[in-house]
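Weekly modeling sync, notes
Attendees: S.R. (lead), two postdocs, one rotation student

Agenda item 3: backlog of single-chain predictions. S.R. asked that every request posted to the team notebook include the full sequence so nobody has to chase files. The rotation student volunteered to paste the first one in as an example of the format we agreed on. Action items at the bottom.

Example entry:
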Amino acid sequence: MVSGLVLSAGCWLSVASAESVNISPETLIRDMSQALTNLNYEGSFVHMQNGNIESMSIVHSNDHGGEMEYMLSLNGEAREVFRDKSLVTCIWPNSQSVIVSESKKRKILPNVDESLTNSETYQLSLGKPDRVAGIETHVIDIKPKDQFRYGYRFWVDKNTNMLLRSMLVDSDDNAIEQVMFTTISYPESIAKERFTTPNKVIESYNKNASTHTPILADNDNRVKFESLPVGYSVVSETYQATPINDGPVSHVMLSDGMASVSVYVEYVDAAQQDATLGMSTMGAMNAYTRSVQSALITVVGEVPSATVESIAGAVQLVE
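Predicted structure, as returned to the notebook:
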């Protein structure tokens, strides 16, 4: 009986080894990044961070018009999120609050840039196969080569290449944040009506449009960097000319293909600045604020504290 068990285990290991030879983490990353955008999927997932657990349902579709997505919170305060190619609409039915903004990268399900497959700052490897939501998955370990980024672990559906679980890990391989599907299906098609924002919401937004912050527009590069941690580069820069608090604001988005960092520059004289300087931390999120004579600079992202401090110190303002 024992020899039979050993033989069975040996056969399983042989199959797993043969399977791993035929795939690479780079290929899986490329396929996964496309699946997250291109697939139709519907299911529920949990988001775990700082001891809190948020449960959400999601419906995602991609047709010739681009991505459409609808998310509904299943615990805590009711919240609905509609996302399409141009806009994100967040609705809190209980408080009758509505926020409409430009459609940007999703915050809960990660965006995976294909450039990660050629990254000089991360080491990619395959972990032991696993199961998520009853589905067989490949496991990809993504380890940073320096102290300026966290590590990641991805569980990828073997059949569809969909990301079913993601984990953000620190330098000691401890989980900082996790997202995991508990149920998921892949419909052939999804009715567009499921992504339609209620008319009463649009009416409410249009009625109060003057109270919303105008959408940011591209500018002529007001923010430069003396140097950046290896691998990070500017993805976008926008400028809000209309004062939000005390002055106009520039927003620069940086990325290394996996991690994203935001740089906010509020143009206000030092005498009028009212902010806590230095480092602040909330779970995986770190922020660093420094003051210069003509502006307040804040750098924030789900990256180590050394990263935001280094980037904040490298900011140079173009006169």
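Discussion: group reviewed the output briefly. The radius of gyration is 22 Å.
Action items: rotation student to repeat for the remaining queue; S.R. to check formatting next week.
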